[in-house]
């Protein structure tokens, strides 16, 4: 059941989180399988003469959101609504919130956000809209609100808000992650450790297409001197970083840059009748002999892992091994789709070994090789042969694995 949580994050300023815990969603953006669910975080700040709402929630949960909002404030008292990013998981409830507010609040966002909101919800939501530019400051309720654009993190409309006197960063999607963490903030290390892999999965699936902008935009915020001093980083999904806020942006930088975990080799393959599988047994044996720690995802007639999970593993891999069978003169469809998404969203400089099996004419290995050589990945070798691997094939596979491992050292 979808739940809502409201908690006070601090007393000075008086700041609350309204978190909708969505455990009913299956495919985020109708694409990414997330059985772990997701949260949509909005924040409410009560100041001397102002009440500021930072983002809202998904349209489906507008009534639940309003119910929780009313526990904190009469919606008509909201003076400002800051829209960091118009994707409807954050803006969907805005029309209902504005209706409950009698359109009294000023809505604040970038020029792009204004356009998108009008396109999504009509003219009413933008009739009291204030366009802000990069670096612009506004005095609200005695505090200085600085708006900083972070374009393509992950839409053109995206910005963050920095409340200068309190050193608070409201970062919306930047700093977010999948899953429904047990805690609201980062006070429990075990919760954080369980949560971080969901952050990596979120980064690659949602922001991955623009991953160079992750590093670029975080650098921009660091150069402004606001990250090192931040008291809290408050994202639109997942954990609110109230204790060690820098940690989440450091994690984002590592994922954005594809910093590998020592010895982790990501192995992905399909096998219809076990021929690719036999090759991968040899590959895995050689990898383990060389002290590597393979993480394996396989598509067979019994299992089909989520591509979103595979994507989340790419940034921290030292190297990747892709095994595929030739299927109707093409790469097997499962691997074709997985590879398409990896190249689009997790295109890193990492060594790749390709392993192929075919019946009457090898195509998959060569096609993968063409795609890999055109990407940022480094092509180490392609070992492709017919049916069941021979002793000669086995020797070639072991040699190729050794070459791959040397590449990582
Ligand atoms: C639906 C299907 C389509 C296939 N298409 C081709 C093909 O176009 N060219 C080819 O050489 N082999 C083709 N094969 C044969 C497989 O590539 C070959 O048997 C390979 O060893 C399969 O490995 P696997 O059982 O691990 O998937 C096809 C097999 C199937 C079941």
Automatic annotation (TrEMBL):
It comes from the Archaea. GO terms for molecular function: electron transfer activity; FMN binding; metal ion binding; oxidoreductase activity. SUPFAM superfamilies: Flavoproteins, Metallo-hydrolase/oxidoreductase. Residues 265-405 form the Flavodoxin-like domain. This is Putative flavoprotein.
């Amino acid at each position: 059941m979808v739940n809502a949580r409201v908690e006070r994050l601090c007393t000075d300023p008086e700041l609350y989180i309204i978190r909708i815990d969505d455990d009913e969603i299956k495919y985020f953006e109708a694409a990414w399988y997330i059985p772990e669910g997701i949260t949509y975080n909005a924040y409410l700040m009560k100041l001397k003469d102002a009440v500021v709402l930072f983002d809202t929630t998904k349209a489906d949960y507008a009534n639940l959101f309003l119910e929780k909002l009313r526990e904190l404030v009469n919606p008509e008292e909201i003076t400002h609504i800051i829209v960091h990013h118009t994707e409807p998981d954050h803006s969907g409830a805005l029309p209902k919130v504005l209706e409950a507010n009698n359109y009294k609040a000023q809505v604040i966002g970038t020029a792009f956000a204004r356009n998108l909101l009008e396109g999504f919800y009509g003219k009413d939501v933008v009739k009291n809209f204030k366009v802000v530019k990069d670096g612009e400051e506004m005095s609200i309720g005695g505090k200085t609100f600085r708006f900083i654009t972070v374009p393509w993190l992950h839409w053109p409309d995206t910005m963050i808000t920095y409340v200068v006197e309190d050193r608070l960063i409201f970062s919306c999607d930047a700093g977010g992650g999948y899953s429904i963490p047990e805690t609201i903030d980062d006070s429990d290390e075990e919760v954080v450790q369980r949560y971080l892999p969901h952050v990596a999965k979120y980064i690659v699936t949602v922001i991955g297409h623009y991953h160079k902008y992750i590093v670029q935009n975080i650098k921009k915020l660091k150069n402004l001197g606001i990250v090192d001093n931040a008291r809290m980083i408050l994202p639109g999904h997942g954990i609110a970083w109230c204790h060690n806020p820098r940690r989440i942006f450091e994690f984002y930088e590592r994922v954005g840059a594809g910093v590998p975990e020592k010895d982790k080799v990501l192995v992905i393959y399909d096998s219809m009748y076990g021929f690719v599988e036999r090759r991968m047994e040899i590959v895995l044996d050689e990898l383990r002999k060389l002290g590597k720690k393979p993480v394996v995802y396989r598509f067979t007639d019994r299992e089909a892992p989520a591509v979103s999970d595979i994507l989340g593993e790419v940034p921290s891999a030292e190297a990747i091994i892709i095994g595929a069978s030739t299927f109707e003169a093409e790469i097997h469809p499962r691997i074709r789709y997985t590879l398409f998404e990896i190249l689009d969203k997790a295109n890193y400089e990492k060594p790749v070994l390709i392993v192929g099996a075919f019946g009457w004419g090898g195509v998959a290995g060569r096609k993968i090789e063409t795609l890999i050589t055109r990407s940022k990945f480094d092509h180490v070798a392609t070992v492709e042969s017919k049916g069941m691997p021979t002793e000669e094939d086995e020797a070639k596979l072991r040699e190729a694995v050794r070459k791959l491992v040397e590449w990582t050292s």
